[in-house]
Amino acid sequence: MTDSRHGRLIVLCGPAGVGKGTVLGRVREQHPQIWLSVSATTRKPRPGEVDGVNYFFMTEQEFLAKEDAGEFLETADVFGLAHYGTPVKPVVEHLEQNIPVILEIDIQGARSVKQRAGELGLDVMTVFIAPPSFEELERRLVGRGTETPEQQAKRLETAKIELAAEPEFDKVIVNNVVDDAANELWNLIATEFNL
């Protein structure tokens, strides 16, 4: 997979509230050829979710068997409630077709992907979406209005830890203006995949 005709797997991270999903959504609106990796999970589908589109839904037994067989790039056990993982096969298949592949995961997942990808001979580019300042991140997180004050405080504590990991990443994009951050992300992708 280290063949120079194939672009690197792009791993996108950043703290909650930084706008990762918004930036990535803007890029994908303009460049639908980008493939956003679909995770596997043992949680039950929510109304409207489609197997293979939102997630690959599977039983815990299926998930653990695939994990034991090395079929995931990374896995996480979320609060003991459900397992999540990134299947290797579709990632490799898309990269072999020179289709840009993006994983949007947390920092722990990014670390796992880098390690596992190295074992598989996959090249990875890690991209950190950063806020213009911690104060702006706090303003955005509170402004979402989707969490209680206690949840917001916990997310901000986690964000401090995540922001400290920024030097581990290959590229950093500051999300001050969504369109500018989206253009910067697309330029990285286009350069990587010769698009």
UniProtKB/TrEMBL annotation:
Keywords: ATP-binding, Cytoplasm, Kinase, Nucleotide-binding, Transferase. The keyword DNA damage does not apply. It is an enzyme of class 2 (transferase). ATP binds at residues 14-21. Its EC number is 2.7.4.8. It catalyses: GMP + ATP = GDP + ADP. It is found in: Cytoplasm. It holds the Pfam family Guanylate_kin. CDD domains: GMPK. SMART domains: GuKc. GO terms for cellular component: cytosol. GO terms for molecular function: ATP binding; GMP kinase activity. Belongs to the guanylate kinase family. NCBIfam families: guanyl_kin (TIGR03263). Essential for recycling GMP and indirectly, cGMP. This is Guanylate kinase. The gene is gmk.
